[in-house]
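Backbones bend. We report:
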Amino acid sequence: MTAVGRALLSVGIDIGTSTTQLILSRLHVQNTAAAFAVPRLAITRREIVYRSGIHTTPLRSETVIDARGVEAIVAAEYRRAAVDRSAIETGAVIITGETARKENARQVLAALAGFAGDFVVATAGPALEGVLAARGAGCDVYAAEHGAAVLNFDIGGGTANGCLFDRETCAGTGCLNVGGRLVKLEPDGTVAYVSPVLSGLSPPAVGRRVTAEDLTPLCRRLAEALEEAAGLRPRTDLSRRLATDRLPPLPPPGALLSFSGGVADLIDADPTPPWLAYGDIGVLLGRAIGQSALGAAPRFRPRETIRATVVGAGSHATSLSGSTIAYEGVEFPLKNLPVLALSPAEEALASPALAEAVGRKLTWFAREGGPVVLALRGLPSPGFDDIQRLAEGLLAGLAPLREAGLPLIVATARDMAKALGQAMLCRLPRPRRLLALDGLELADGSYLDIGRPVGSALPVVIKTLLFQ
């Protein structure tokens, strides 16, 4: 089968603090290279073919997700979509916000893997969430087409994931503990739950019966933290204290703001729902954001709000490695591969010094006992001697993995994987287990999932795994 007209069926499953939802997409793959050129496969169109209902995330307690309840939701949606799980080829399962902090988050993801085919990643990390939500909202396309900068905040039940797209580049991400379910309320206004992240902001006590006026000052403080993160007021200890890992980069002058997530629909709601409509502070938080400098700032209106993250997970998590790949003796799919990235200075070393640098990197994951991805930028126009030097140095440094019977996996940003992979294979004794792929910008701290070949390319997902 040729790659022209090939389509991958992708699933996105988002288990959020407030809601759980699912989408199915078709990712259309085509050869975008000119005639007589080396084939270059790319995802040229993303088509959403099914949207689930929006379900309340089932919990057994404040610290435990109802895994069977989540499974039942996903199974029911597959039946409604008339899709067999074996047809799913790629996508992402993401546990987001406060739900990622639950005691059994990993077990829930493991349980869902069976519903997601061979190649679906289970991820939870604010950086990836922010990027996927911004892409699902359309901020990346708008920024690229208009030469603009767009800072998106995806505000859900537990967190606000920020992502800045500046023209065609993702300039950075950040995340704050700002969300509608940080305080949960009974129908009569009695406080049922207060997230520990609100410590220091004078939250109401559990068991106290409150009014909208009682909670408004807290919601204004949360909106102020977002104002600081957006550069609309000087950053203080407020935003730094609420940051889960880091704040997003300050946007350049003239940047647009964008809001997605469940709270986004409440910022401009007309009429505004009753303040207790959702049993939390979501309505009041949306109102506080709308009345703040955030609401008055120039804005991009996203094409998706509450579904932005799940659309991003199902349609934008997957990319393709370049067509000049080389592999032998590797079984796909490969999941949760930690990335070790060489610096440009390390790449330029002579073979013995390069081997030492690679060996030092491997000690970072000495206790993991599994394969890793060695990432390098590669050379723009490598000559024969350059390829041989790299092949010798990398193989010498990766020897501990080969001796342990693990596959050797090398990824380059530039299109040189086929030549490098073949040079390495020529030097390996049989049985040989090696994969060289290209077209990937990878950094330390990332993880990689690699699916089965699509024509002459490999579907990949670059992700972060972070359970807080």
User: Anything to note?
Assistant: The mean pLDDT is 86. The two ends are 43 Å apart (CA to CA).
